[in-house]
Design a protein that fits this description.
Shape: globular
Number of strands: 10
Number of domains: 2
Radius of gyration: 21 Å
Order of helices and strands: HHHEEHHEEHEEHEEHHHEHEH
Number of helices: 12
Helix content: 40-55%
Largest sheet: 4 strands, antiparallel
Length: 302
């Protein structure tokens, strides 16, 4: 069994992690310990598993909405104190994400088992580990195949569903080649492409350079279907997520049409940092497979 590593943090580092834990708890991500008189569902029950999933989604959001915070967990080369946000101010200090994940899985703190297990699953998702790699009650880190880890991340979508659009021309070194796309222009383009009734709002993303725009759809099954349809449109036109990641290396001729400079894809948990503060605060994380399962079950009963 790998050793849980700890070290004595500096005063400044300790203040930073304590403040982060306070922000997490203030937003209601961590539940209060179960009060005396309340019963905790058995760990092998469906109810207990549902509670873990709920905590899992909340912690996935916490770990992804701030890029600096995410780097603190994924940066294996840097040693920085990490505290357990479930334990809060009473947390021990952990030297790396593995130590924290092992603590979260093994902790038997009264009333906090659900939150610890949710945090463990969220950390595994972030690091690409298998949360089910358990032998004789002990979890050990096992790296998932890249395709499986990616599939797990792509399943967790921002909700209400969003499609994130990048203006590829903003990153060009020649300012004369940049095309600023207005909200009104994008809305008109979407209407012409057959998208309208399923859209709740179109707004700017986080960067102040106007390089990101966000199309927010209604938080319904049909809204998700419309968001996926727009996602597929960009993917089929070779203007999806993968193409955008390569756009800065592309030395082709300058494009001047709106449809040529925009790259779009369905927003997942890892994209939360691209949203503006208001949109992010009103968003949660959901499983796309779970949403489709509910829709299929509803159809089966009709």
């Amino acid at each position: 069994m790998p050793r849980i590593e700890r070290h004595k943090p500096s005063k400044l580092a300790k203040e930073k992690v304590v403040e982060f834990c306070k922000r997490v708890q203030a937003r209601g991500v961590v539940s209060h310990p179960v009060k005396r008189g309340r019963t905790v569902p058995p760990e092998d029950s469906d109810e207990f598993e549902q509670l873990i999933h709920r905590a899992y989604f909340k912690f996935v959001k916490v770990l992804n909405e701030n890029p600096a915070q995410r780097r603190k967990y994924t940066n294996k080369g840097e040693v920085e104190t990490i505290k357990c946000c479930v334990c809060g101010s009473k947390s021990e200090d952990f030297v790396n994400t593995l130590s924290l994940a092992m603590h979260a899985f093994a902790s038997q703190k009264v009333g906090c088992r659900v939150e610890h297990m949710g945090l463990h699953k969220a950390l595994c998702l972030l690091m690409g580990w298998d949360p089910m790699a358990v032998s004789k009650g002990i979890w050990s880190p096992k790296t998932l195949p890249d395709a499986e880890a990616l599939a797990m991340k792509e399943d967790l979508v921002v909700w209400p569903p969003v499609v994130i659009l990048h203006n590829g021309s903003i990153g060009t070194t020649n300012s004369g080649d940049r095309i600023v796309v207005s909200i009104e222009e994008l809305e008109a383009f979407l209407r012409e492409a057959g998208f309208g009734w399923g859209i709740s709002k179109v707004c700017r993303g986080k960067p102040v350079n106007q390089s990101i725009m966000v199309v927010i759809f209604h938080g319904t099954f049909s809204g998700l279907q419309e968001a996926e349809r727009l996602h597929k449109l960009y993917a089929e036109n070779k203007h999806g997520r993968d193409e955008f990641q390569r756009v800065n290396c592309n030395s082709g001729e300058t494009q001047h049409k709106l449809e040529d400079v925009l790259y779009g894809y369905l927003g997942i948990a890892g994209d939360l940092d691209k949203l503006d503060i208001k949109t992010k605060s009103h968003s949660i994380v959901k499983s796309k497979k779970g949403i489709y399962a509910i829709a299929d079950a509803h159809l089966d009963t009709e």
